[in-house]
Design a protein that fits this description.
single chain; alpha+beta; Aminopeptidase; 14-stranded mixed beta sheet; 11 helices; 14 strands; 42% helix; disordered C terminus
């Protein structure tokens, strides 16, 4: 007879045996393993988010599954790192039978919200309210095979990038690409570029939130097989012109925070960078580069396919936190779904965000000049 117990602990308090078991289960159930589902990512979030917890499902005393989450007031729960994590769910041994509501009760949660639930998460998929494409670049056959495919499908993209590379080298200086750059000053520069991009496009500046900037700095020093921080930088002469910080496992690279120096915008440095990253990733044994959920023309040009991610929530309706979740999330969620399903409204919304960003920058410059 199988005896099942659920223990809840802070990520930092997981035993070495639990961490090893988590990694083994993930390797067994997901050969192409996203680093956001690793114990290292969970522990990094735990260092900056006080509500981070892990429910450890034990059968006959042995760990059989791990459910990372964050717990807020009134038991309102969310996926670990929600807001920046691109892959969410639980890591369970095949064949484990679990009631999701019982899991929430054991975790002292009223609700558990997700927005990047990976495919195959049968425990939570019945509670999904939306599904989205997450474009990917498949590299199992190597970069040469990928470039051949890119030339056939996006010849103009690649031809333009090569011309911009030559022009940048000629006008600024020789190009140098570092796939794994350990310079903290460049990471700081990248974060400043990205903050400016968020403001310019009317979006909330993620790096203005201390927990996110702290999380990135923590992950920059993480170097485990299942999750390692990776800073990639394109230099022209001695000056960084574009950079990306992401996470990699043995087989997956998540393209997370790319940005570039606006002084070099006419050279399309972001495009040059991503092509260098793809080539280096293939050489490093990466078989899948995850470009992340969201619309962008460069993703459409580069991708070879799409994964499917889901958003939604598991709710215990008798709990007060569940009512708070509905009041705070459902109306805005309905509006977002309404806009997404109507391309004209979506285009107008993006245009409005850009206008707001320009107004913010103008007002900030005016205040600085006073």
């Amino acid at each position: 007879m199988t005896v099942q117990r659920i223990d809840v602990t802070h990520p930092a308090d997981l035993s070495a045996a639990d961490v090893a078991r988590w990694g083994e289960l993930r390797d067994r159930t997901a050969p192409v393993a996203n680093p956001f589902m690793s114990p290292e990512f969970c522990r990094a979030v735990g260092s900056v988010r006080p509500g981070a917890r892990v429910a450890v499902v034990r059968q006959n005393g042995e760990p059989a599954g791990f459910f990372p989450f964050e717990r807020g007031r009134w038991g309102r729960g969310r996926a670990i790192g929600l807001g920046v994590s691109d892959c969410q769910g639980a890591v369970m041994r095949p064949g484990v039978t679990l009631d999701p509501h019982a899991l929430l009760r054991a975790s002292a949660l009223s609700v558990w919200e997700f927005n990047h639930l990976e495919g195959g998460q049968d425990l939570f998929l019945p509670f999904a309210t939306g599904r989205f494409a997450s474009p990917v670049v498949e590299l199992a056959d190597g970069y040469a095979a990928y470039e051949t495919r890119l030339r056939a499908g996006s010849r103009t993209f690649l031809k333009s990038a090569r011309a911009q590379e030559r022009r940048l080298a000629r006008e600024v200086g020789p190009l140098r690409f570092v796939f794994d750059d350990r310079n903290p000053a460049v990471l700081h520069t990248l974060m400043a570029w990205k903050s400016a991009q968020y403001r310019r496009t009317g979006r909330r500046d993620r790096f203005a939130q201390e927990w996110i900037s702290g999380l990135v700095r923590t992950l920059a020093g993480t170097d485990a097989p299942g999750c390692a921080g990776l800073l990639s930088v394109l230099y022209a002469g001695e000056r960084p012109v574009a950079a990306h910080f992401g996470l990699r496992s043995r087989t997956v690279l998540s393209y997370w925070f790319p940005a570039y120096d606006r002084d070099f915008a006419t050279f399309s440095p972001g495009r040059l960078l991503v092509l260098r990253v793809i080539a280096a990733a293939a050489d490093a044994g990466i078989v899948l580069l995850d470009l992340g959920r969201g619309d962008a023309p460069y993703k459409d040009s580069l991708k070879t396919g799409d994964l499917t991610v889901h958003e939604g929530a598991v709710v215990l309706r008798a709990r007060p936190g569940a009512a708070l979740h509905w009041l705070s999330r459902e109306p805005s969620g309905a509006v977002r779904r309404f806009v997404r399903e109507r391309p004209r409204l979506k285009t107008a919304a993006v245009r409005t965000l850009h206008s707001v960003g320009r107004i913010r920058d103008r007002d900030r410059d005016r205040d600085r000049d006073r």
